[in-house]
């Protein structure tokens, strides 16, 4: 314990007394959470008077951020998920270290939640995309064009339910020959498994606008538990005056979990899509009629 404290003191002391490069000034910033504890990984951006970003980084485990910049006037923006952004003005003096007053972050107001009841996913304003690696090199981007889903919002949002069905034959990577191969028995086998389905009855609030939507994905005849890392974007009004709720979400799938055996395909000279696939969703929902 004593050695750890000595190392921490030496590390902090060396950061404070690190030499400033000739013709530069140093800026120091301490970021605190609402209970005055150091905030780790807060985003800090330093911009010049023209709005150009000069330095960008994150606070260390002690809530500190330090940078050297040319002398002059700057604005510093501090942001963190679930907190209101803070902006400060500061002047860097040549050869001097300027310490800002501690930046105290305050929780951001939560966006209004959808009203309880059934909400229909609007396919015209929703995207179901995926990203994978082609032979371990370039990324392959694709999407599914036909799907439908319903979200049942409970009085207590954590008890809400979600059901989404996707037509596997609607896969679209922009290359017809590749899409036909992906529909074949080597991959999705859409003749045998025409749909994939995700159902969830567990919504976990992770703070701010972040939610984990935990459920079961049925794909290729196999069911696996997955978690959607989701960000709720709030309520808006559409062009026809309709109420809309929006969110984004992502998850990482492993092909072998769904019996899509990439090693077997490699042995047959098929090395099209990587073993890990990232799914990305942009969702809008409207009240169901």
TrEMBL record:
Pfam families: CarboxypepD_reg, YceI
Lineage of source species: Bacteria, Bacillati, Actinomycetota, Actinomycetes, Kitasatosporales
UniProt name for this protein: YceI family protein
Domain spans labelled Lipid/polyisoprenoid-binding YceI-like: 118-286
Protein family according to the UniProt entry: Belongs to the UPF0312 family.
